């Protein structure tokens, strides 16, 4: 009877050792994979966290409205005018003025 218990204990210990070795191998592989991933992608900057809250939502809404209005004005000028110089003038002015308008709205 004690031989059977000793044999079962030895089998349990062998099974536990095998599970432990497999877990260690898995952890080692994961560590190597993570190190390799970090080495390859470590130089890439992480995306900024998007601001949340009422003020951030208002800022995003204003910015979107400014861009939509600038786009609408450019489309209207493009459709209403046959003159290429006027079209490019409107596009150039909108590219120059849009950042100024955004700065004035956010300050």
pLDDT averaged over residues: 90
Tally of distinct domains: 2
Cα distance spanning the termini: 86 Å
Give start-end ranges of low-pLDDT stretches. none
* Number of strand segments: 0
What is the CA-atom radius of gyration, in angstroms?
33 Å
Biggest β-sheet description: none
Fraction in helix: over 70%
The secondary-structure class comes to: mainly alpha
Beta-strand percentage range: under 5%
Q: What's the gist of this structure?
A:
This protein has 107 residues and is mostly helical. The chain is 84% helix and 0% strand. The chain folds into two domains: 1-43; 54-106.
Describe the structure.
The protein has 107 residues and is mostly helical. The protein has 2 domains: 1-43; 54-106. The chain is 84% helix and 0% strand. It has 3 helices and no strands. It has helices spanning 2-41, 54-80, 84-106. α2 (54-80) runs antiparallel to α3. The termini are far apart. The model has no long low-confidence stretch (mean pLDDT 90).
């Amino acid at each position: 009877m004690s031989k059977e218990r000793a044999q079962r204990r030895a089998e349990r210990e062998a099974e536990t050792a095998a599970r432990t070795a497999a877990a260690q191998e898995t952890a080692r592989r994961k560590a190597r994979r993570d190190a390799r991933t970090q080495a390859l992608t470590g130089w890439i900057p992480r995306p900024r966290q998007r601001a949340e809250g009422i003020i951030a939502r208002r800022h995003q809404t204003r910015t979107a409205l400014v861009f939509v209005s600038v786009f609408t004005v450019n489309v209207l000028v493009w459709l209403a005018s046959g003159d290429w110089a006027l079209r490019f003038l409107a596009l150039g002015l909108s590219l120059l003025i849009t950042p100024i308008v955004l700065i004035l709205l956010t300050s």
